[in-house]
Every structure is written in C-alpha cells, then in structure tokens.
Design goal:
mainly beta, seven-stranded mixed sheet, four-stranded antiparallel sheet, 0% helix
Length: 120
C-alpha cells in the first residue's frame, strides 16, 4: 500500500509564496504529480516530475510561477508556489504513478490533500 502525505497548505495573501511537501516511502520508484481541486470544480493537473527529476511539465495556468521538485533520498516531493493568486485556492493533492509522469490520467496513488487558500 502506497501512502502519500501532503503538508504545507495554509491561508496566504495574493502574491505570497508557499511550498507544499509530499512524503512517501520508496519515492524513487514513482513519478510524482500535483493536482488541485477548487470548490465546485473538477480536479485538475498542476505539475508532474519524472523519477530522476530530469523532466517536468506544468499546467499553463501555473507555468512560470510553480516549480515541482523532488528529493529521493528524503522521500519527499515539493511544489514551490510563487506569486499566488486567489484563483489558486484549492485542495492540493499529491499523486504517484509507476507509469510515465506525463500520463496524468493514470496516477494510481493519491494523498489526502492539503488546503491552500489565497486571499485577495
């Protein structure tokens, strides 16, 4: 059983920065992704990173503001969020896959989510 635990979500102001963390055992075995779900909306892709951290890609809405990274020895993946906007308000989920990082519809394992609220 793969268990993912997110942390770092909180209430911030527009323009602030925030870093989310996601821990799991044997992180090196998985490509990792971050997704989010705003109230009344479907869950959407945010960012993904390959096992080696050599490759990553982002949703257009966060490109240039968010950065996904990972530290395999620490079994932790991160989402650095800069220049936050009210529309970034959502529950953020960490996800893992044994498949390819770009197959964003095929992530098998999910965390419980962490709330990020950006006030204007």
């Amino acid at each position: 059983q793969v268990r993912l635990v997110e942390s770092g979500g909180k209430l911030v102001q527009a323009g602030d920065s925030l870093r989310l963390s996601c821990t799991t055992s044997d992180l090196q075995d998985y490509a990792m992704g971050w997704f989010r779900q705003a109230p009344g909306k479907e869950r959407e892709f945010v960012a993904a990173i390959s096992r080696s951290a050599r490759d990553a890609f982002y949703a257009e809405s966060v490109k240039g503001r968010f950065t996904i990274t990972r530290d395999n020895p620490k079994n932790t993946a991160y989402l650095q969020m800069n220049h936050l906007k009210p529309e970034d308000t959502a529950v953020y989920y960490c996800a893992a896959t044994v498949g390819s990082y770009w197959h964003i519809r095929e992530y098998e394992y999910w965390g419980q989510g962490t709330q990020v609220t950006v006030s204007s």
